[in-house]
């Protein structure tokens, strides 16, 4: 393993400085008269089988611990620590922890990436059946997207590292684009809508596709969108990780000191940056876009941003009825979802409109007051986008007043449009609003483990567009946001 050659964090001193590596190989050479070295293949060629063994579906002990839900994971870790002072050697073979596929249940983002990979795999297979030579070009991209590290999280960052998720999605998009080129032939302005349980969680999803844009919406979660991708650019913008409780979070609060390699990295708990404690928040639902809420008129935007003001009603977790419409090269997906709550009776119809070949879509909203009282407040549409860095000079806002850094939080008023620029991936996200609105912005940051200790990771930005609402009983209002994706130098 890596630590034997000084690669594992903290082991360089013992391996090289204190001479472990030299002593190890020197010891082998000194015992050449009685110690024979051979490869696994050489041994298998001369040694007969000793019997039959059925390998279980398990991994090493730490992986089993990480795969558990937060509370059992913390308890399992404590039990292992207690056993180290007792019968650890005797008991360890029977302590397996969780199953690797628990990660797909533990993290929605891991499951959605995994199921999108399976969907693209079927897509690649279909392309290969139609055109074996051209379809084969997509396979390498698919295999790269199957690289294991991004699908789980333990001591190292894994799923928490946004550049790993970006690499997986980028390769999926390349594989998908290559397959689409085979399956759709020479057509440029094609559209496609796939309905079904795409992420295999028991609910209905809707995958909306053109050659330039892919959106994944969840009908059982109020129509929320978890994927916004640009296949021709191999750029994924929607994978913002949700803040959630981890089994090791309580240890962060007790952590201190530094890691010098004298103990196992699995036992170490080092704060790389004390500000990591500020990222220990927990989100009420999965980070997604096209997610709506209604706030009282007395709630100030600053209170909404800080969380001091709670929404009266939300679309999160609500079942939406879905209608898909096609007209020429235009594809529309309509989601009807109740937005009622205590003392209010609002109904929302929201629509995604795509056009074949383009890199833009429109989010339309029709809000109706079905109650007996006037609704006066704010209609909020939330969008979570991943630009990979919060402080990079090539990632910034335009049209938000003086604020430019993606790591900044604040309120911009009287906004009719804004841009989020990612010059590193050479794309700008432009939003055009149908009226002056208040736009709230904040970074999404998580606290997680890495090989160097506890660290804070920028996961993306949360943008909330707050439309003013004043609806008499029986009246309705329409709102819209046009999202465009353009090249930047």
Mind explaining what this structure looks like?
With 489 residues, this protein is α+β, with helices and mostly antiparallel strands. Among the domains are: 1-54, no CATH class; 249-487, Beta-galactosidase, Chain A, domain 5. It is built from 12 helices and 17 strands. The protein has helices spanning 12-17, 20-30, 40-46, 61-66, 70-83, 88-91, 102-106, 108-130, 132-145, 162-183, 249-254, 301-306; strands at 191-196, 205-210, 214-218, 224-230, 235-236, 291-296, 313-314, 321-327, 330-338, 346-355, 360-369, 375-385, 395-398, 410-422, 427-450, 453-471, 476-487. Helix 9 packs antiparallel against helix 10 (162-183). The radius of gyration is 26 Å and the shape is globular. The two termini are 43 Å apart.
Distance between the termini: 43 Å
CATH class of the domain at 249-487: Mainly Beta
Mean pLDDT reading: 91
Give start-end ranges of low-pLDDT stretches: 257-263
- The count of β-strands is 17
How much helical structure, as a percent, in the residues? 25-40%
| Oligomeric grouping of the chains | single chain
Structural class: alpha+beta
Secondary structure layout:
Elements lengths: L11 H6 L2 H11 L9 H7 L14 H6 L3 H14 L4 H4 L10 H5 L1 H23 L1 H14 L16 H22 L7 E6 L8 E6 L3 E5 L5 E7 L4 E2 L12 H6 L36 E6 L4 H6 L6 E2 L6 E7 L2 E9 L7 E10 L4 E10 L5 E11 L9 E4 L11 E13 L4 E24 L2 E19 L4 E12 L2
Antiparallel strand pairs: 1-2, 2-3, 3-4, 4-5, 6-7, 6-12, 8-9, 9-10, 10-11, 11-17, 12-16, 13-14, 14-15, 15-16, 15-17
Brief sketch in words of this structure:
The protein has 489 residues and is α+β, with helices and mostly antiparallel strands. Helix content is 25%, strand content 31%.
